[in-house]
Amino acid sequence: MGDERVEPAGSPASVPLEERADPRPISLPDDSAGADRSGASRIVYRLLAAVTFGLAGFLGVTSAVSAAGTDLRAERQTDIADLARAQLQRARELDAELADLREEVDELLARQSGDEEAQVAQKELERIAPVAGLTAVTGPGVAVTLDDAPPSARSSDVDPDALVVHQQDIQAVANALWAGGAEAMTIQGQRIISTSAIRCVGNSVVLHGIPYPPPYRIEAVGDVDGMIRALEKSPQVEAYLSYAKDPRYGLGWKLERLPSVTIPAFDGSLTLDYARSADDASR
């Protein structure tokens, strides 16, 4: 548009030849300076646009590298693993406080040892302590480790639910070990007693209020051969093993004979929040 010229009114192009009284040529205004300025402005605008887009691209790349695939707005992130670790640390601190309180109670009971009723209660406590899981146990045993399938097993034609360890899988192993002659047992290092409950929450298993990610290790002291036979005969364990042996799933399974295992005493709360009799449960 800047290179076209518009003839001014009264120029030779707008006046018929017969009306031109003055034969001298009429000088037209020179637009070359304006055209040069217009062309220079376009070049400047293009340069500014190029610089703007280049700067935006540079900032985008810098942000991507800095984020390393994460959200730079950390306050909007919810890291489940960090929450689980914080909960586990808090639970350990509470367990330590509980152990200190129990020591104080034992000291108070010891001071009252001269009382006849206190002596009877203490003897009864010592009698039932091993059965209740309140004393440590050491002896030969077994260890079973269950784990989720590796990431390579995930595909569109495989149900994701079949690639993770569920609470019923852990319960199946624990029940088989009890049936095979286990005297004491731990899951993830925690002593299992009659009131212990295994719950599945998301991709973690909660035991005594503490969430644990896989792998899940179960240790038991008792008749080693009897426990292994019970695992082999359990239909629920056999169902899990079918997924562990199938290359499409590849769930983790490891069975070990241990010459010596130490099962610690239970140091959690013995209080029941909810309970009902076996007769009521069967109705």
From TrEMBL:
Signal peptide: none annotated. The keyword Disulfide bond does not apply. Pfam families: DUF881. Residues 1-36 are annotated as: Disordered. The chain crosses the membrane at residues 47-68. GO terms for cellular component: plasma membrane. This is Uncharacterized protein YlxW (UPF0749 family). It comes from Thermasporomyces composti.
